[in-house]
Amino acid sequence: MLRIEDALAIILANIPLLAQTDISLTEAIGRALRVDAVSDLDLPPFDRARMDGYALKAADTAYASETQPIRLRDVGEAAAGFAFAETLAGGQAVRIMTGAPVPAGADAVQQIEVIQVSNDGWIELQKPVQPGQFITPRGIEARAGDVMVNAGTRITPAVAAVLASFGYARLTVSQRPAVALLSTGSELVAVETTPGPAQIRNSNTYSLAGYAQAAGAEIIHSGIVPDDFAATCEAIAAGLQRADLVMLSGGVSMGDYDLVKPALKELGAEVLVEKVAMHPGKPTVFAKHGEKIIFGLPGNPVSVAVSFHLFARPALLQMQGIKELHLPRAYAHVTKSVKGAPPRRSHQPGRLNINNGRAEVTPLKWSGSSDLVAFMNADCLIVVPEERANLAKGELAEIILLRD
Ligand code: AMP
Ligand code: MG
Known about the structure:
Strand 8 and strand 9 form a beta hairpin. By secondary structure, this protein is of the alpha/beta class. It has helices at 4-12, 157-165, 204-214, 229-242, 260-266, 301-319, 372-375, and strands at residues 20-24, 37-38, 48-49, 53-56, 70-78, 92-96, 108-111, 115-117, 122-125, 135-136, 147-149, 170-174, 178-184, 188-189, 200-201, 218-225, 245-249, 270-273, 278-279, 285-289, 292-297, 329-334, 338-339, 345-355, 358-363, 380-384, 390-391, 396-401. Residues 184-185, 227, 250-251, 299 line the site of magnesium ion.
């Protein structure tokens, strides 16, 4: 039985890097950037007004007061997209709108609300203005030539906005991993079907497809495979033909009809991980077949989710060259005692709540690793260390935040 860290190290050492491809920015969300994105200009590209008001020379206002307001000559206008062409001289001000370039010669902006504007072409200020006020200086957000987004970054909406600002209409990203998804089990029927006696509906396909897509994968649905040796071999072989990664659920425990490992061996795959000191999810299988990889995840719906997040998700991300592989972890106080599973490290579904600034996590009531209904409400996993039979109420526990 491997420790989680050791299993993960073996997996990550055996993941091929996918080829790269060019796509347009409009298709980029969720993709992995493969080259550094460099800025082609300063941002903002000019000193920019942050308020609607007047651009002026701060020194002109130094002696302004309520009893002795100062007057400046209104000499023109700068609007977003339209610069004021001349250089401001002493005693002058330019009406300016948010987002407009601050005219040469001006060094501050005062907001319209505190200015008295007369209709004879003068404005009045009753307070001094600090130099630099309400100006976003050129280049404060980015400098031309700097790396703005590093290779290996996943493109989120906020990253896409940065790429757009620096002219990246097209991008070099990773190919998406093609994942063949197979559910094993003679008891499984399709979602459209009313299960007969001893049958259940296949649910893992839907959780796994969603999780894998969220990790950047393209899913090839390969259906349900009965617990039959020849059928299992054939389905895995077909998956290896079509996909970069074959992901199976079920058929990896010790039952007489758990045929995934024997089938992998029959096909000449190298089984590198077959038991991990974790709960749930102990029978997680990882194998390699040439450049293709195979995950045999346990069949129980909660086990499959835990195993996916700990092992398959980082593998999918690494295939795309993504640098940040792991789900965020944090600490929270448990609101009830939590059972462990020595000598395995346990992962209990929980729900995080910030209570008056204190991070608290409530273990969900669940009947075991088949309880997909309880798991639906989990937003994190509570980690119970391998040596602990339980965590006491109030104890600080490590949690893994689930993202999908
Ligand atoms: P196994 O790992 O094949 O022994 O399956 C463990 C448990 O998970 C059994 O109760 C199975 O019926 C259940 N199970 C296996 N595959 C699925 C699936 N695709 N959807 C829902 N439950 C499943
Ligand atoms: Mg089974």
